[in-house]
Amino acid sequence: MLLSEATNPGGAFSLVPWIVFFPAIGLLLNLAVGKRMGEKFIGTVASLAAGLAFAVSAALFFALQANHGEAVAVPFLDWIRIGEFNAGWHFRVDTLSVTMMLVVSGIGTLIHIYAAGYMHYDVRYKEDPAAYNRFFIYLNLFIAMMMILVSGDNYLMLFVGWEGVGLCSFLLIGFWYNRSPDGTPGTGNSYAAKKAFIANRVGDFGFLMAVFTTFWVTRSLQFDEVFHAVESGEVPVWAVWAITLFMLLGVTGKSAQIPLYVWLPDAMAGPTPVSALIHAATMVTAGVYLIARSAPIFSSIEAVHNVVAWVGAGTALFAASIAVGQYDIKKVLAYSTVSQLGFMVAAVGMGAYAAGMFHLVMHAFFKALLFLGSGSVILAVERGHHPIGEDAEHAKHADHGHDDHGHAFDPQDMRNMGGLRTRIPWTFWTYMMGALALAGIPPWSGFFSKDEILTDALHFNVSLYVVLTLAAFLTAFYMGRQVWLVFFGAPRSHGAEAAKESPPTILAPLVVLAGLSMFGGFLNFPVLHQFGHWLEYTLGHLYHATDFLWEVALGSTAFALAAIYVSWLVYGQKPRRTVKEKDPLEKAIPGLFAGMNAKWWVDEIYEDLIIRPYQKLAAFLADVVDWRFWHDWFHDRVLRDGFFGITRFLAQPVDLGVIDGIANGLARLAQGSAAALSVLQTGFVRNYALWVFVGVVSILGFLIFR
Questions:
Q1: What is the pLDDT of residues 493-520, one digit of tens each?
Q2: Which one, of 601, 596, 577, lies nearest residue 326 by Cα?
Q3: Among residues of the chain, what percentage have pLDDT more than 90?
Q4: The pLDDT of residue 400
């Protein structure tokens, strides 16, 4: 939809820059005085900054409603002006951008509140309390950059936010840069941050090429101008293919699709609030937003839909299969995020933009809940296993970070859990709400959003529907597996047995998110399609309402319940009793389970095909080309030795032989002349008088005889 021409919008629209300013002010305030003011001040300022951004987003939501959904551009400043090209820093307020603002700031605020309590313990377990302030500075920066991404009115401004969240992910994934993911000293977390950074740079190359191609063929980067050029047929077909495929490469990086998904599971190296922020509300949703924002381009060629949809569907099934074989509670959720992003990409790829965005919002609710819930579980087990502070005062004994077998204790390993539903009941019940939503059980939110995507897939391509249905079945299974392993049966470690419920600052966001996970699906209730009609103001003729099909709804529900029942047969009926006990799936299907547990050896394949050859090439270029050839031979022999040779030649034969020879010759000539003339200098007056007489006679003789 075209923007309104208002250059000085009044009312709530003029507040839109504050969605960036408030988080920026929060981080600057903590940067300036946070360390001196203490943790309560730091957490309050950071949470308030995110909360105020949410308040502005809510005000924009109501302003749009009052404006009958008409989009508005809010000029802020002239940014880049080169000839006829003008990329202004203008904020775009439409139903799509405001939806993203509400998700980012709303979920982000809850994560900030949660983090205020969670990081109090985490920084102490990592023995670095001073890092508390640094964490919230990064977290506020993340919100600010994501707000720039979703509010930009052109691709260049969007790219600034795109790169900004990439930087923030690097800083937060590697937050504990001097430790490994298991908490021990090492470089594992910094490696995970580097992996995320490099994978995203590959995707960013694709996005940049899409931007360059777009400007080449349209001479503009402003959304409406680009879309008008595409829809009017001014852009050639080859350019549309290039733009969409380059954008898809960017999406595979940012939204973790095949083949660049490998960074996202390793993002678990960051503190749990970071995992929730990246996976639920911010960075990974950027790719889905980019496709939805560029809907007129992606819809201009039908064949593009097939490419994007199959990338998403393939990712959904592939990642879901890997999640089945993981033991780390956060890794299961990480591969689940990759899989659910596949659902979203498949939806927007099919042209079901409203369905994809609806699942994005619902996923933000229940995946934030699950990640924050997993953090509460991890913290509970950690506090039970290794009490510190007030916990240690009430503990009978405190161990030193090892399990019952003397190995390093991993509080994230589900094999070390069990029986937690009675020990941390608030966490358990809220976690169940998220698990049921993700599994797609009605009436939880995930059922409504996933059902829309499956219905669209059935209309689009039956094969695509089958793949996504299989992914949904595996989703319900691995969530059932996780719940049985974590919360049921008997505790399998001292940490699980002595687990403690989390404090209210952690539980309060879980309760709010549990409510959203339960009732959020009614935002786009079948037949009414409130959410879809809201996005219709932006999508225009590209929006279509998904018809509710009972056969799809009943089929997906039956598959989900069947998957949960199978997970109960495998894991719930006879709960695991010890940490060392072999997984039932490993016993039943050892080869298949080994593949799922090893993530289908994709990391190893990348290691063998890309990383090691690259490292060998880098070593060759560094040692042979740069050091031996460029440094030792060219610099030392050609440049240094050549310079020394020339200087020796100039110094010896030229300078000493010629230049000094001439100077010395002149000196000797002067010396000889002086010696010859010195004969005449006797010092006797009679001799001088004689020579004067001789001179006078000679002159007179010359004059006479002439």
A1: 888 898 889 889 899 999 999 999 999 9
A2: 596
A3: 61
A4: 45
pLDDT at 431 over 50: yes
Cα–Cα distance list, 562 to 163, 245, 480 (Å): 42, 38, 11
Task: Please say whether the beta carbons of 5 and 98 come within 8 A.
Answer: no
d(CA 270, CA 254): 17
Least Cα distance to 430 among 359, 509, 503, 355 occurs for 509
CA gap 25, 178 in Å, rounded: 29
Both tokens of 517, joined, read 């996970």
CA dist., res. 136 & res. 409, Å (int):
28
In a 10 Å sphere around its CB, with 0-12 CB exposed, 13-18 middle and 19+ buried, how is residue 466 labelled? Answer: middle
Single pTM value for the model: 0.87
* Structure-block tokens of residue 15: 């507040």
For the chain, give the number of residues.
Answer: 706
State how far Cα 512 lies from the chain centre: 26
Question: What pLDDT band is residue 6 in, cutting at 50, 70 and 90?
Answer: very low
d(CA 103, CA 96): 11
**Cα dihedral value 149, 153, 156, 158, nearest 10:** 10
Domain residue ranges of the chain, discontinuous segments joined by +: 1-254, 301-390+409-597, 604-705
* Closest listed residue to residue 262, CA positions, set 318, 186, 329, 195: 195
Q: What is the mean pLDDT of the chain?
A: 89
